[in-house]
# Entry
Amino acid sequence: MYSLWSTIYLEQDVDNYSCYVTEDIWLRLMNEYNTSRIFARIVKDDKYWLCSLGSPIRTNLVSENHTVPIFVPTWMLEQINCIGNGENIIIEWMPNYVFDHSTHIVLEPFDSSTTCNNIQELLSIELTKLAILQRDTNIYIKLNDLTVIYKVKDLHPASVVLCEGDEVGLEFVEQRPLTPYPFDHLPELLVPELVVPELLVPSAPPAEEPIQQPRFNPWRNKDFKPNTS
# Structure
């Protein structure tokens, strides 16, 4: 059992792509798995998140229940509804060779305006740092001093893949803008009512013109049900 903390509790600077443990835990894991890269599977109820293990850190933080602390970037914690203030959590450690290497990645940017000429090259570098991708999740990538959010729309050959700088097909799906509806062709019930300034409304209609009765609108009657036949 581990105590889960956000990386904001660390006094040292760390990147936003990995999780961190103290040196004794880091050495134990490295000796146990004897591999170049290890990943933490953080389990919270019916949700989980995978992230790579970063370099060992030093901390004076001691959990009240004496569990082993692990530090995870806040944006990752949000994916599994964790606060990161010391809650007990289950961690499963996994070596890199249990994952398939990515062959095709489809990303959807939350903001299509955050583009640049060498976006593919920059993303390849940052995705290698992140190291692991999971389908239907959001990832926070740093590009030119900006943090860009992408939704992982699709992955091949599996729903979880390893990114290690390989030549992969990187595809972008743009968010579809709302289709504008011509104002002149709006259905009658969708046309907004014109608000006339109070000062321009006459106190009474001209005597020579009959007072027009308000037009009957069946939608204003809560008992009215449209004919669906």
Remarks:
- Residues 177-192, 214-229 have pLDDT under 50 and may be disordered.
- The chain has three helices and 13 strands.
- The longest strand covers residues 85-95.
- The radius of gyration is 28 Å.
